[in-house]
Write a structure and sequence with these properties.
The protein is 39% helix and 30% strand. A nine-stranded antiparallel beta sheet has the order 4-1-2-3-5-9-8-7-6. It starts with 5 loop residues before the first helix and ends with a helix.
Length: 203
Amino acid sequence: MNKIPLKAQHLLVFVAVAVLFFAWGAWLMRSGEVHPLANLQQWRDTLLQPLAEDELTLREVQALAPGELWLAPRLDGARLFYRASLDGEEGGWLLEAELRLSLEQRDGLMAAQGLQAGGTELALGQSLVDQMAGFSIVSLNLRAPQALVSDRLAASLGQPRLTLELAEGQAWVYPQWGLTVHLQGDEVQLLHAVPRKAFRATR
């Protein structure tokens, strides 16, 4: 039986080691990639962009995430919120959208429910959700799940146009969507969005 020459054996070992080395390097590169959040890219198109253009209604939000209306009888005036949960690949998000109401509508809701300013929040029936489906959304909060790193958000929305240092944490500002992202350390805490025109008026 013919034996492989010693030099050829050394060459085979060298090739095998080289192949393993490059495979390991490729695996490290792949594992170091930051993948965008598919859900956040979808919400950018279905929630953030329409809200930025002041065209988002309760109907679109409800279609994406079934939830409940809550009446908050605050001292500075009643406010009506739609609250729901959104499932993301990295965990559950909490959505809160405030409806645009006139002063008369606010007072009417308070009177109909028998609430006083400063009282306890009250969940309203599904029939009211259907009746108010055409109402505009004036602001939107998306509370992120725990341990969502900012790199993944940046991979989904791009780098912010402005970064602000806050007393606690940091804020990334995306004026094109009227969006402010609040971060604590390297983790995303909250996305707060309003129509672009309202966003510009406050800055």
